[in-house]
Automatic annotation (TrEMBL):
Name of protein: Glycoside hydrolase GH130 family
Family: Belongs to the glycosyl hydrolase 130 family.
GO molecular function: glycosyltransferase activity; hydrolase activity
Organism of provenance: Butyrivibrio hungatei
Pfam family, one: Glyco_hydro_130
Annotated SUPFAM superfamilies: Arabinanase/levansucrase/invertase
Family annotation (PANTHER family): 1,4-BETA-MANNOSYL-N-ACETYLGLUCOSAMINE PHOSPHORYLASE (PTHR34106:SF1), GLYCOSIDASE (PTHR34106)
InterPro entries in the record: Glyco_hydro_beta-prop_sf (IPR023296), Mannoside_phosphorylase (IPR007184)
Keywords: Glycosyltransferase, Hydrolase, Transferase
Transmembrane segments: none
Length: 340
């Protein structure tokens, strides 16, 4: 009998590999055949990483950050039977405007893919007089219509919730400056229509724990559970040799997700393997999506590794929630409404 409940569809064909009997730290383990996407995956694309996947028509679909050989990132569509072996479309996703004319961002990176009701939304970071958030919607993965930019610059990281809360779409993001964000907290904004965003709230800030003391940002779309919204996010530490990106876990209030119920004071995954420590940007694990099965509590976390690869890690709902609760440190700034 599972202790906690995942409130979502079952996913019988979730990719899965059993983990160890015992854990030194968090109950999270890597797929043994990582990375699942290697270098030069598409003609003209040197690396794919920081990407998001979803179940679709009994198989899987995803939006992938492809770093082109001119160094400019863009979003490519990928298809898979098993969510591990991916085939990519060689053309960039052809975004259009409301009138149906081509409307391509100058660059696009760190895409998330989230289904709310019957529509799939792609959310990414792009240029809008500086780094800002871009969005598009699709129902068939053939026509991709861009939506209005939700925020003015600068903002480099946004994640949509998979359902409306109190009748509103909910978006996590990290407002920043024009540089490579040498700071940053997670904020929440709501919208009645995916166009006008407001009622901004502070969710959580960098913590005194060194692994997330520089900046934090949303990762995978939160998973609805009986304990609240289970959120895997990234936390950044600064060293004399650059930033280190780890994965953290927190649980947000179900009806009011600007309130943090539990926040794990330790990372749940940090760069340790060669594909996480060595690459275009070393020491990065950057989660962008999960697949999860409500019947078994299995969770597969998709993360970018070293800005070079896509990798996969696993956990189980009961174990990860217990771990987050047992190691939870929630400060006043995490629990307040975030309106001051
Ligand atoms: C962040 C984003 C991510 C990237 C990370 C490490 O600011 O740009 O796309 O993975 O830096 O380079």
């Amino acid at each position: 009998m599972s202790k906690y409940k995942m409130i979502s569809e079952p996913l019988k064909n979730i990719p899965w590999q059993e983990g160890p009997e015992k854990f030194e730290g968090a109950p999270v383990w890597r797929y043994k055949e990582n990375p699942i996407i290697g270098r030069n995956p598409v003609p003209g694309v040197a690396r794919i990483f920081n990407s998001a996947v979803m179940p679709y028509e009994g198989k899987f679909i995803g939006v992938f950050r492809g770093e082109q050989t001119n160094g400019i990132p863009y979003i490519y569509l990928g298809h898979s039977e098993d969510a591990i072996h991916w085939e990519f479309e060689t053309e960039k996703i052809p975004f259009i405007d409301k009138e149906g004319n081509p409307f391509m961002p100058r660059y696009a990176y760190d895409p998330r893919l989230v289904k709310v009701e019957d529509t799939y939304y792609i959310i990414w970071c792009q240029d809008f007089y500086g780094a800002s958030i871009g969005m598009a919607k699709t129902q068939d993965f053939k026509t991709f219509e861009r939506l209005e930019n939700p925020f003015i610059p600068f903002n480099r990281n946004a994640v949509l919730f998979p359902r409306k809360i109190n009748g509103k779409y909910m978006l996590l993001s990290r407002p920043s400056d024009s540089g490579h964000t040498p700071f940053g907290d997670i904020f929440l904004s709501e919208s009645p229509d995916m166009e006008y965003w407001g009622h901004h709230r502070h969710v959580m800030e960098r913590s005194p724990e060194w692994w997330e003391s520089v900046k934090i940002g949303g990762g995978a779309a939160p998973i609805e559970t009986s304990e609240g919204w289970l959120m895997f996010y990234h936390g950044v530490s600064s060293t004399c040799n650059g930033f280190v990106y780890s994965i953290g876990g927190a649980i947000l209030d179900i009806d009011n997700p600007s309130k943090v119920k539990y926040r794990c004071e330790t990372f749940i995954l940090t760069p340790e393997e060669w594909y996480e420590e060595r690459g275009f940007v070393p020491n990065v694990v950057f989660p962008c999506a999960t697949l999860h099965d409500s019947e078994t509590g299995k969770i597969a976390i998709y993360y970018g590794a070293a800005d070079s690869y896509v990798a996969l890690a696993f956990t189980r709902l009961d174990d990860i929630i217990d771990y987050i609760k047992e190691h939870s440190v929630v400060r006043e700034s995490d629990t307040e409404l975030g309106i001051r």
